[in-house]
Amino acid sequence: MLNALTSIAFLAVLVVAVSWLGPRQPQWMSRDGSRFITYACRPDTGATARWTRVHGRLRDGRVTLRQSFLARSQLSGQWWVVAVDRDDTHAVFTLGPDDIVLLRTRRGSDLDRALSPQVNG
Description:
21% of the residues lie in helices and 38% in strands.
């Protein structure tokens, strides 16, 4: 009987952990605020835009992105932050000016606070 209760309790804890962690997007920013991991996409691909995990660096008002190791899209380069759009849960930064890339982060996150002052325009 104790073995069955232990198994049920373990499954309950597992379900709670998965339901809490599942919808969260992995996002990270270094302590000095110069490096981050979040999601980006190109809106002009002609197909359905897919958010891809990217690694980035903030330096001298520019955002440098490189795709994660297993990413399929080509999201590497340097951009400026030209605009921002926010909803209840996310902030989507438009990077440009020539080649447009969208960068998505949680609203109020460290990355949101770091990129907001850099909006040009």
